[in-house]
Amino acid sequence: MRKKLWNILSSLYPMYLNKIYSMNISKKAIISYKAVLDKSINPRGIYIGDFTWVLAGAMILSHDHSRSLKADTKIGSNCIIGIRSIILPGVVLGNHVVVGAGAIVTKSMPSNSVVVGNPARIIKRGVIVNEKGQIKDGGKSLTV
Predict the structure, then answer these.
(1) Are 89 and 65 in contact (CB under 8 A)?
(2) Residue 2: how many CB atoms within 10 A of its CB?
(3) Strand pairing class (121-125; 140-141)
(4) How many Cα atoms are found within 13 Å in the side-chain-facing hemisphere of 75?
(5) With 61 labelled, which of 69, 72, 73, 132 sits at a CA distance of 20 to 30 A?
């Protein structure tokens, strides 16, 4: 019962964000209600693609007061944004990108990669994320 309720709420939340804040979030995206999406200055600057999972505590920003910056933040399809990770304004993530828990993404990342750390860096390329948020490992690990 609890899982069914969570599935219903997580499918309605993107529609709510699109309607109230004019964000451009796919109806097929899964966004935790505990995720923080920038709603104050530039909510229209957030774009999230199909089958992307934004997990609890993740923060996606589209403005920065200290630099007087308003920039579009774009996340591609089939991505996973880990728990308590932060995506800074102006970042563009390609398709099939996995952002590790607690990572701080300061610059754009290419498709089919896994990024971790502060600041985030690529540790693996060639990964594929399916529609259920499962990672198919076909990539090469990079030396750190």
Answers:
(1) no
(2) 6
(3) antiparallel
(4) 34
(5) 132
Residue 116 corresponds to which tokens in the numbers above? 């971790």
Question: What is the pTM assigned to this prediction?
Answer: 0.86
Are 121 and 103 spatial neighbours (Cβ–Cβ below 8 Å)?
no
**pLDDT < 50 regions, the chain:** 143-144
H or E element at residue 12: helix 2-21
First to last CA, the chain: 43
Token digits of residue 141 = 């690990």
* Residues carrying an active site annotation: 65
What gap in Å lies between CA 144 and CA 134, rounded to an integer?
Answer: 24
Chain-wide mean pLDDT for the chain?
88
Structure tokens at 80: 């996973």
- Six-digit token string for 41: 């200055």
